[in-house]
């Protein structure tokens, strides 16, 4: 069973997404802000991180940069989750170190496909 770290400050989004992911068989670890997300990633070594980009304390862009600059967490795939769907937002997420990008509101089949693709790619390498 893959362990996912969900870094999300919005209680409704966190609850809805974590329950739906657990129903699909994933173990879900939660963090409420970017600083906690970085700490949980280092402590829990998840298989994949779902990172909201607009977070308190440390935003998702900076949290992603910290994780990708850390030898212990660099290889963990990160999917940016954001309501930002403007031209250039996907590129900004990828430049900060994210491995993929998905927009809110979340479409579960699309997100699950991205999660599985990244998990399969990681296990193959």
Describe what is shown at a glance.
With 125 residues, this protein is an alpha/beta fold. Helices cover 46% and strands 19% of the residues.
What does the model show?
β4, α4 and β5 form a beta-alpha-beta unit. It is globular, with a radius of gyration of 13 Å. By secondary structure, the chain is of the alpha/beta class. About 30% of the residues are buried. The protein has 5 helices and 5 strands, in the order βαβαβαβαβα. A 5-stranded parallel beta sheet has the order 2-1-3-4-5, sandwiched between helices. Helix content is about 45%, strand content about 20%. α2 runs parallel beside α3. It has one domain: Rossmann fold (3-Layer(aba) Sandwich).
Write the layout of secondary structure elements.
Blueprint: E1 3-7, H1 11-23, E2 27-31, H2 34-44, E3 48-52, H3 60-68, E4 78-82, H4 89-96, E5 100-103, H5 108-124
Parallel strand pairs: 1-2, 1-3, 3-4, 4-5
Helix pairs in contact: 2-3
Q: Would you list the SSEs in sequence order as H and E? A: EHEHEHEHEH
Low-confidence stretches: none
CATH architectural arrangement: 3-Layer(aba) Sandwich
Number of strands: 5
CATH class: Alpha Beta
Which structural category fits the helices and strands? alpha/beta
Per the principal axes of the C-alpha atoms, what is the gross shape? globular
The CATH topology annotation reads as Rossmann fold
Helix count equals 5
CATH superfamily: Response regulator
Counting structural domains, the number is 1
């Amino acid at each position: 069973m893959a362990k996912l770290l969900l870094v999300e400050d919005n209680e409704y989004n966190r609850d809805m997404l974590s329950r739906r992911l657990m129903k699909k068989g994933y173990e879900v670890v939660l963090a409420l802000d970017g600083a906690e997300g970085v700490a949980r990633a280092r402590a829990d070594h998840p298989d994949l991180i779902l990172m909201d980009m607009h977070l308190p304390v440390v935003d998702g862009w900076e949290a992603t940069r910290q994780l990708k600059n850390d030898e212990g967490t660099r290889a963990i795939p990160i999917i940016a989750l954001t309501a930002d769907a403007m031209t250039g937002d996907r590129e900004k997420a990828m430049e900060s170190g994210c491995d993929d990008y998905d927009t809110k509101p979340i479409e579960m089949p699309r997100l699950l496909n991205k999660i599985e693709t990244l998990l399969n790619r990681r296990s193959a390498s």
